[in-house]
Amino acid sequence: MFVAARAELHAPKQEKALLANALNLLVPMSTDDGGFHGPSIDEFFPGPLLFEDTNFEINRIILVRWVAVIALLLVFWLGTRRMSVVPGRFQSLVEMGLDMVRVNIADDLLGKKDGKRFLPILTTMFFMILFMNLTGVIPFLNIAGTSVIGVPLVLAIVAYITFIYAGVKKSPKNFFKNSLFPSGVPWPVYIIVTPIEFISTFVIRPITLTLRLMMNMIVGHLLLVLFFAATQFFVVQMSGWWTLLGVGTLAFGFAFTLFEILVAVLQAYVFALLTAVYIQLAVAEEH
Amino acid sequence: MLHAVLSAATEGAEASPSPVIPELYDIIWSSVCFVIILIFFWKYVLPRVQKLLDERGEAIEGNIAKADEAQRKAEAALEEYTAQLADARTEAGRIRETARDDGKKIVAEAKDAATAEAARVTASAQAQIEAERQTALVTLRTEVGTLAIDLASGVIGESLSDDAKATAVVDRFLADLEASEAAAGGKK
Question: Which residues of chain B have a CB within 8 Å of the CB of A57?
Answer without folding.
Answer: 23, 25
